Amino acid sequence: MRSYPNSRKSCAVAPRIAAVRLATQAAGDGWVSLLGGTISRQCLRLGLVDELHLDVAPVLLGDGISLFAGLGRHIELERLDTSAFASEAHLRYRVLR
After folding, report:
1. Are the C-beta atoms of residues 67 and 40 closer than 8 Å to each other?
2. What's the confidence (pLDDT) of residue 6?
3. pTM (two decimals)
């Protein structure tokens, strides 16, 4: 686990790391889904994400929080799969470290 000089940040990060590790153990060979922009960004920053599965629908909301806003660092991705249909597209990427 990473060490942070600010103890409040360390206290906030440790439960997320523990929860993802526990979920990964419970899933075995299955997937652990991070549903929501905030938890996804936090886990990306911590290096806990192996793959991204993005489902894109042709709707422009014009407001709201961007999925990757405030990520704070550049993350390289490798495209693994793309499938497109009339009403949506599905994208799968490996997170490169």
Report:
1. yes
2. 42
3. 0.72
For the record, the structure tokens of 1 come out as: 């686990």
List 78's β-bridge partners, or say none: 94
DSSP run (H or E) holding 37:
helix 37-45
Query: What is the Cα–Cα distance from 69 to 37, expressed in whole angstroms?
Result: 9
* Intra-chain end-to-end CA distance of the chain, in Å: 17
Rounded Cα gap, residues 33 and 53, in angstroms:
9
Residue 56 near residue 89 (C-beta atoms within 8 A): yes
Within a 10 A sphere around the Cβ of 95, how many other Cβ atoms? 15
Phi, psi of 23 (to 5 degrees): -65, -40
Confidence of residue 13 (pLDDT cuts 50, 70, 90): low
Let me know how long the chain is.
Answer: 97
pLDDT score, position 34: 85
* Bridge partners, 92 (sequence order): 53, 81
